[in-house]
Amino acid sequence: MVWENEMLILLDQRKLPLEVVTIECTTPEQAASCIKEMVVRGAPAIGITAAYGLVLAAKKGPEKVKEAAELLRQTRPTAVNLFWAIDQMLTALEEYQGDDLYGHMLKKAKALAEEDVRINKQMGQFGAKLVPHGAAILTHCNAGALATVDYGTALGVMRAAQEAGKDISVYACETRPYLQGARLTTWELLVDGIPVTLITDNMAGYLMQLGRVSLVVVGADRVAANGDVANKIGTYGLAVLAREHGVPFYVAAPTSTIDRTLSKGEDIPIEERGWEEVTHVFGKQIAPAGVSVWNPAFDVTPHHLITGIITESGVLREPYKESIEELSASC
User: Fold this and answer.
1) Is the separation of the CB atoms in 12 and 22 below 8 Å?
2) Where would I find the beta strands (DSSP E) of the chain?
3) Could you tell me the residue ranges of all domains in the chain?
4) Residue 151: helix, strand or coil by DSSP?
């Protein structure tokens, strides 16, 4: 994402990797639509997009900012970074004194964006220490630069490991039904020159059985106070497989993804998306007309299946409730 000429310019991730297309947002309504329609996705990226959406609203005054905040809150329910970023911007609105609301809000949004990059790189440094030399890392969905402002969370760990000379390779699950792994993760890693092999989601268990996975690293859209993690649908299954095969399972997530108001994962709201994402691929129907479809966008991985949660403040481990409480006290 780029802020330029008083507009937010977003890479349309629905078109990748076949086309590189950008969309210009000049109103908060357009920013909200881009979040809801998956032009932009990934918890940190959604949050910063919302922040810039409120900057666009600030041109019309504080009441418009508050109105836009409610609109943006309705776009996607699971990613807590969305609500965190909106709250940060509303705090900036409450603190505002002066005659340039737009400039004040823009400064805050840019600060949040810059902080996101710094946090991702710090997470990468902590995560890279967990990666053995020559490791084969399995990942799911896309938790890279496309899911953040830059660098990435789970892919940030891989980038940092590569920069440290650890000679890694990556297996990327395709991530049905939206194919973020096939379309986005492989594209990012190929651009960076990190060896990547694409697999279908149902190949992961056999890959682990063959002993070809050193560790799993995924991102997160929300972490409950007890360490339960909501991430892209299919993550829970990978965690179960990793436990069965003795493969370390790590989650990379900034502390802004931790929702201390929710005590456990079953309290996390899970977004359900439209049937056509399952029955169609790139606009082509692959299932019989009229078939019933269930399409939860996320699942919840219980904390006991997670080896560690990589944050910008260090690696959290069991007991997660205490680790998260200690983290909160230090922040």
Assistant:
1) yes
2) 2-4, 7-11, 22-25, 136-139, 169-173, 196-199, 215-218, 222-224, 229-232, 249-252, 258-259, 280-281, 284-285, 298-301, 308-311, 314-316
3) 2-119, 122-330
4) coil
Pairing mode of beta strands 280-281, 284-285: antiparallel
Q: What confidence tens digit (pLDDT) does each residue in 100-147 have?
A: 999 999 999 999 999 999 999 999 999 999 999 999 999 999 999 999
pLDDT digits (tens, 9 = 90+) for 296-311: 999 999 999 999 999 9
Cβ atoms 185, 119 nearer than 8 A: no
Chain segment 41-57, per-residue pLDDT in tens? 999 999 999 999 999 99
| pLDDT at res. 85 | 97
**Mean pLDDT score across all residues of the chain:** 97
Domain range 2-119, its CATH number among 2.60.120.10, 3.90.550.10, 1.20.120.420, 2.40.50.140:
1.20.120.420
DSSP 35: H
Contact 33, 65 (CB under 8 A): no
- pLDDT level of residue 331 (50, 70, 90 thresholds): low
* Known catalytic residue at 99: no
In angstroms, the Cα distances linking 329 to 253, 323, 326 are 18, 10, 5
Give dist(CA 75, CA 228) in Å, integer.
Answer: 23
Six token digits for residue 56: 């666009």
**122-330 placed in CATH 3.40.50.10470:** yes
pLDDT for 236 beyond 80: yes
The verdict on pTM exceeding 0.70 is: yes
The whole-angstrom distance between residue 102's C-alpha and the CA centroid of its chain comes to: 28
Q: What share of the chain is helix, strand, coil (3-state, %, to 5)?
A: 45, 20, 35
Catalytic residue among 116, 150, 201, 221: 221
